[in-house]
């Protein structure tokens, strides 16, 4: 089960964003739970409810056009947005509150955000009888299951003129040919965040930093089975990070287990704060947290103490998440207007400033983000370009058998860490 970068527990009453982001990941996911949950989509034996096993595994070299159902059509064109409350189902702290407030003011509505801390929990809430969420944020590894499970409705692009602002590749992505159900929201790569004032040299293979015994007790991997095991594979030059070969997955597990005795490895998901504050020296991390880390440095400490490593050939882990409209949405026209609103740079850039996770906007590039001081020179490698998706490697949907294989390997590693 792959965690998303925003899966960090929930903010309690009165917590500000900085306080929230300091909270460690508390939620644990039972082995195979998402696979079991989504297998139930259409698993009631009725002929018009396809099982999740019917979902094709989308890959860059095996693009998938998701099915459209006659009884779940796209909304008609030319309708006025509904009034009332737009109900958004999203990761905690994954939209700037000022952006949501401005949308509500523009359309004369309220925006109610229901949060989840894992995609597993999000899908459970989406499937709850009587749930009527208007906007959902799926990831590439579940969108096929959600469409086949009849949990999403097709988009009407006439309401989404701002889709022209995003990278062209997301107008026809391999996991949703024709972008029938989704538009992109944010991007991230997975690399190594470190304290450059402590780490004086970077090995040619930057993943080796995590095996460096000189920093014993100060090294962390992400609390994420796919990311951690996938990183171990990439370190050995294995680029099929969606493999279901038991020998490859088991070898990756054994490589991670070397870290237990070698560097007293720790597992965490608060790298955006633990690295700048010095608790961690080296931490497997997502690029959005490298951007955020600048803002968690102690007073008087400059961003030059931070370092970010991602493969120079850009053949590392990369991903994106999306915006979609659930089948049961009560305000589908308003939901389309919200999605279009979030595709406007005037709104998505402030949202990025809040979350640290880059939207796939044509207006953003490494030069502009450096000039606008979203990143410093030492962190500019965390900025993602369209070409990175030509070279990068995405963690994608596995078969139920494959999910169980990875989950088992991760459980064995965690039991000793």
Decide which structural class fits the backbone.
alpha/beta
CATH homologous superfamily assignment of the largest domain: Periplasmic binding protein-like II
CATH topology of the largest domain: D-Maltodextrin-Binding Protein, domain 2
The overall number of domains is 2
- The CATH class assignment of the largest domain is Alpha Beta
Tell me the major beta sheet: 6 strands, mixed
Number of strands: 9
Continuous helix count:
14
Helix content: 25-40%
Keywords:
D-Maltodextrin-Binding Protein, domain 2, 6-stranded mixed β-sheet, 2 domains, 9 strands, alpha/beta, 3-stranded parallel β-sheet, 417 residues
Structure, described:
It is a single chain. The two termini are about 20 Å apart. With about 425 residues, this protein is of the alpha/beta class. Strands 4, 5, 6, 7, 8 and 9 form a 6-stranded mixed beta sheet that branches. Strands 2-1-3 form a 3-stranded parallel beta sheet. It contains 14 helices and 9 strands. The chain has helices at about 15-20, 35-40, 95-105, 120-125, 145-150, 225-235, 245-265, 270-275, 285-295, 330-340, 345-355, 365-370, 390, 400-415; strands at about 85-90, 110-115, 135, 185-195, 220, 265-270, 280-285, 305-310, 315-325. The protein folds into 2 domains: about 15-185 and about 320-370, 3-Layer(aba) Sandwich (D-Maltodextrin-Binding Protein, domain 2), CATH 3.40.190; about 190-315 and about 390-405, D-Maltodextrin-Binding Protein, domain 2 (3-Layer(aba) Sandwich). Helix 3 links the parallel strand 1 (about 85-90) and strand 2.
């Amino acid at each position: 089960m792959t965690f998303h970068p925003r899966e960090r527990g929930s903010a309690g009453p009165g917590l500000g964003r900085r306080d929230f982001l300091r909270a460690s990941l508390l939620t644990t996911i039972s082995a195979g739970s998402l696979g079991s949950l989504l297998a139930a989509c259409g698993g009631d034996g009725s002929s018009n409810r396809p099982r999740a096993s019917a979902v094709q595994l989308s890959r860059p070299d095996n693009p998938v056009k998701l099915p459209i159902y006659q009884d779940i059509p796209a909304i008609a064109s030319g309708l006025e947005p509904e009034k009332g409350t737009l109900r958004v189902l999203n990761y905690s702290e994954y939209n700037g509150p000022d952006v949501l407030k401005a949308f509500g003011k523009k359309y004369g509505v309220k925006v109610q955000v229901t949060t989840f801390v894992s995609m597993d929990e999000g899908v459970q809430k989406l499937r709850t009888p009587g749930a009527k969420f208007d906007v959902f944020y799926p990831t590439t590894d579940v969108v096929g299951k959600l469409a086949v499970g009849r949990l999403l409705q097709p988009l009407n692009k006439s309401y989404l003129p701002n889709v022209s602002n995003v990278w062209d590749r997301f107008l026809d992505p391999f996991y949703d040919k024709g972008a029938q159900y989704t538009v992109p929201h944010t991007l991230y790569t997975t690399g190594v965040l470190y304290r450059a004032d402590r780490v004086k040299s970077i090995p040619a293979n930057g993943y080796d930093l995590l095996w460096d015994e000189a920093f014993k007790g100060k090294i962390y991997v992400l609390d994420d089975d796919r990311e951690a095991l996938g990183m171990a594979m990439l370190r050995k030059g294995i680029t099929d990070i969606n493999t279901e070969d038991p020998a490859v997955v088991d070898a990756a597990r054994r490589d991670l287990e070397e870290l237990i005795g070698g560097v007293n490895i720790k597992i965490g998901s608060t790298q955006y704060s633990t690295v700048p504050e010095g608790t961690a020296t080296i931490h497997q991390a997502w690029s959005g947290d490298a951007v955020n880390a600048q803002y968690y440095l102690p007073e008087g400490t400059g961003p030059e103490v931070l370092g970010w490593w991602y493969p120079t050939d850009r053949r590392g882990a990369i991903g994106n998440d999306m915006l979609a409209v659930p089948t049961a949405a009560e305000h589908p026209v308003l939901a389309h207007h919200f999605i279009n609103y979030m595709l406007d740079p005037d709104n998505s850039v402030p949202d990025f400033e809040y979350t640290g996770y880059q939207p796939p906007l044509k207006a953003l590039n490494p030069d502009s983000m450096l000039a606008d001081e979203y990143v410093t020179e030492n962190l500019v490698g965390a900025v993602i370009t369209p070409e990175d998706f030509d070279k990068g490697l995405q963690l994608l949907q596995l078969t139920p058998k494959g999910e169980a294989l990875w989950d088992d390997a991760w459980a064995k590693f965690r039991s000793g860490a």
